[in-house]
Amino acid sequence: MNPSLSEVLQALQDSWSIDSTDDPENWNPSNPSRGQCGMSSLIINDYFGGKLVLWKVFVGEEQDGVHYSNELPDGTPFDSTGDQFWDTEELKEPLSFERPSELPKNGADRYLRLSDLVRSKLEREQEEKSIST
């Protein structure tokens, strides 16, 4: 199975929930990408490789958190959750790095569940395509 970037993104978006966010206090269905960046960037990396990018999130002059996105193998930046931010939040100081080989210490269970959901959705979509052709 070799899904496109848009297919993986759609499967991710369809799979996001309060159970997959690392920011449940601020997550809601009208902003489903809120708190999904870490696990989503790992899943994009699973399918396409490349590097992870760590950003500092600032509100005014104070760092308020971090954000993860991807750098695809050809150097193209890709941010599956870039729409999650409030007007007061600003991304600064990106740091590109190779993905660690181990699962994240915080959120391994969320990553595994979200990854399974995405894979299932992509497999179902592939089956539907093969039936219709």
Automatic annotation (TrEMBL):
It holds the Pfam family YunG. This is YunG.
